[in-house]
Amino acid sequence: MTENSSIAYWKDTLALIRNMLIIWFVVSYGCGILFASALNNISLGGYPLGFWFAQQGSIYVFIILIFVYAKKMGKIDEKYDVHED
Amino acid sequence: MGLQAMTYFVVGLTFAIYIGIAVWARAGSTSEFYSAGGNVGPVVNGMAIGADWMSAASFISMAGLIANMGYGGGLFLMGWTGGYVLLAMLLAPYLRKFGKYTVPSFMSSRYYSSGAATVGVLCLLAASLTYIIGQMTGVGVAFSRFLGVSNTMGVYIGMGIVFLYAVFGGMKGITYTQVAQYCVLISAYTVPAIFISMQLTGNPLPQLGLGSNFVGTDMSLLGKLDMVVTDLGFGKYTTQVPGSLLNMFVYTLSLMIGTAGLPHVIMRFFTVATVKDARYSAGWALIFIALLYTAAPAVAAMARLNLHATVNTAVMQDGGDLFAAENSIVYESRPDWMKRWEVTGLLKFKDLNGDGRIQYYNAKSKDADFLAKAEAAGWKGSELSVNRDIMVLANPEIAMLPNWVIALVAAGGLAAALSTAAGLLLAISSAISHDLFKGIWFRDMSETQELLAGKIAMAVSIVGAGYLGLNPPGFAAGTVAIAFGLAASSIFPCLMMGIFSRTMNKEGAIAGMLGGIGVTMLYVFAHKGLFFIKGTEFLGLFGGKANFFFGISPNAFGAIGAIVNFGVAFAVKNMTPPVPEDIAQMVEDVRIPRGSKAVDGAH
After folding, report:
1. Which residue in B18, B172, B194, B277 is a FRET match for B312, CA 20 to 30 A apart?
2. ipTM value
3. Half-sphere exposure (CA, 13 Å, Cβ side) for B226?
4. Quick check: A31 contacting B, CB < 8 Å?
5. Do strands B347-349 and B384-386 pair parallel, antiparallel, or not at all (unpaired)?
6. In this complex, which of B207, B280, B293 lies closest to A70 when CB atoms are compared?
């Protein structure tokens, strides 16, 4: 792996992690805590929305985030030809 | 079959399975002992992580905690799941690529010194030992409640079972028993939850039931619960916050970082074959964990509503008067499950106003209107004290489910405690045999000798953990949360900087770990006493006020410790010699998946 492609690979990786962690932060600390009381004015079925994010929604989003990350990371690995086998 | 016999039968059957697996999966090499041979599939590993992770605290206590805390209980749900996002993206794939058996051996190579490894081992032991105390007491409690043996006997039986499969099977035995234990604990948790959700909302899925209407009304279950608890003087269920919003924020962050820094969880990622598998197995782990964690808030809210409905019949009437004397149930005609749990002391009744009826409400309410109504109704204080663990343990009885379900809950609680204890014991014993013995003290040990040392270290750890379980330090109940603080403030920042900073050197990493864990311990000990010994609290040094640092509780302090760790590490790094060139190269190698090999023990 050349110096340049190694720098580019790491840059892409960090960008992906950054984007994922922004969503991670927004759903849990944002929707689940900081803005929960405002979101509670909206209902999701019988759930106040802020409460739902704190006790249900953030967990579902976390799962999706990990699988999206794993898939996209696999693509980045292949793009820079550093994948296994 | 009677309840007792049924419980013995179900628990005995699960134990026979665990021992059977132990015999089948004996560890014959250090590779099998530390990393199960390194070829566990991502789904199987995810399931094992689920059992490894979900402890007696998750299984028995969490729903009860949420039932009391309401909305604020979400901090446990988010904190104990959000850490997997950090683990999947920041640590697991890179540590798997590095390819060594233990967490301290990464520190030893990355920070090119046995000093860093020694500090790492100490932090690991501090976090894991604190954590295991809670598991062993949990084993004792579960045995004594369900099987009618003494607490002490329960701990001995638990030690015996773990000894059988952990000492002989190592990581290999633990992995496959954890898979079996996951299946037991998840069915034990979800079966009662489904029945109760059906009864209260008509929706079999607890996750949807919690957001559905209360049966026979057009009012949502949560709306009903909010109304009942506020009418009885408690905080509003869907909005009550523990301490301040800042405290909840920092507490959640501490649990997330702590989750990602717990060595017994990180180690499980060394058992998969590739970096790619490490990424996916974090996702699978979270799916398996979420099955319980998304059901828990439903169990919590429904059990809370059930409890209020049991003692005050007005809850189930349309527009019923909670304060009408005849609506509080007569103590003598209370349901059988209450009688059974009174025997254990988890449920206590004291007839304060001498009317023979049970009044259960928040006597410490600050609402003058409510207190006036309670006064007018002749209530002289809340007469029922309810241990939070009942919310899960008595759930099947409250919902009048058959005996086999109650027996299954017993087996589930034991599976949760035993699987986590085994994972922790492996982390502890491998740190001793691999990092201290092989890595620092006796470098020329052969593989056979190291395997024997590992098994002996495991046996000694089990005895030590059993001793701590039987003689827990004064403050056992809160220790699990503190373990997360210790891991968050020491191990997580050190590993993360080792991967994401090419320039972090050994002086910075060591000073960071010591600073982070030091400040966290200082804050915890100031509140709870030196090493949790009562009477040695030294809050007076800091003005004498509890939670003196911006109202943050000691359990939530790990995130602050982590920030201190990062700060100290970078400050010290800038004042000390730079990292050697070959280490910077090693960091480059760790960052790409290509060239990953089976984990090994080379130093």
Report:
1. B194
2. 0.96
3. 15
4. no
5. antiparallel
6. B280
